[in-house]
Design a protein that fits this description.
It is a single chain. It is flat, with a radius of gyration of 39 Å. 50% of the residues lie in helices and 23% in strands. It has a four-stranded mixed beta sheet with strand order 2-1-4-3. A four-stranded mixed beta sheet has the order 5-6-8-7, covered by helices on one side. The chain starts with a helix and ends with a helix. The chain is of the alpha/beta class and 233 residues long.
Length: 233
């Protein structure tokens, strides 16, 4: 039933009963009587498909109808794949959440934001703990600050009944990951420079001071004295 509805959304061939149509193709568009367009479609072994019925005159294409439906289905599938589904992930705190529990939930929030999801973090006040709402607000603001690299605050902490919630949206995809990659690259470059410096120092330490300094001057003087003695002889 669903496929029949899909197939019947376009009028084809004799189903097109207007007087004239605008036939579009790679070479442009031509307005012609519908009967002439049908004859042209038969000559080419294709169908006359009405793709824009509300235009004046209606717009049609000369194409194999089954191929046309396949292209439409493929295009719809590609558009659906490009759409990013954003989910809202919730993280719950108590007004006196411990440090370990806080860090555990902070880690999950980073993962949610990196995946492109929004985060709704809230503090639930049970019974008389509503007296600590200022403490809950401080916790949520700290949470947003610790996630600054990964997301931006869409809504500041607001009290909703027994809950105080904050909304955090992800930053552009890959921002945090790129920062990590940059830090890793800089670390590798620093290690390479340090290794090169140590190698150079080791090479300098192994060099013998031949051919320069006082030793070189002494050797030159000795050779000059020897030559002068030979000439005098």
């Amino acid at each position: 039933m669903k496929n029949d509805k899909k197939n019947n959304q376009y009028r084809v061939n004799e189903q097109i009963r207007v007087r004239e149509v605008r036939v579009v193709g790679d070479d442009g568009a031509v307005v012609m009587p519908t009967r002439q367009a049908l004859d042209l479609a038969r000559q080419k072994g294709v169908d006359l498909v009405e793709i824009s019925p509300n235009a004046q005159p209606p717009v049609c294409r000369l194409i194999d109808y089954s191929k046309f439906l396949y292209q439409q289905k493929k295009r719809a599938k590609e558009m659906k794949a490009k759409q990013v589904k954003v989910e809202v992930k919730e993280i719950r705190f108590g007004p006196q959440t411990g440090e370990n529990d806080y860090n555990f939930k902070l880690k999950h929030a980073k993962e949610f934001l990196l995946d492109g999801n929004k985060v709704r973090a809230y503090v639930f006040f049970r019974g008389r703990s509503i007296l600590f709402k200022e403490q809950g607000e401080v916790l949520l603001l700290r949470f947003a600050n610790d996630l600054e690299e990964y997301g931006k605050v869409e809504q500041m902490p607001q009290l909703e009944g027994k809950k105080m919630a904050i909304f955090i949206a992800p930053k552009k995809a890959g921002v945090a990951k790129k920062s990590q990659q940059k830090m890793d690259r800089e670390k590798r470059e620093a290690e390479a420079k340090e290794a090169a410096r140590q190698a150079k120092e080791a090479e300098t330490a192994n060099e013998e001071p031949v051919g320069g300094g006082l030793f070189a001057n002494a050797r030159i003087s000795e050779e000059a004295l020897k030559k002068l003695t030979e000439n005098n002889d």
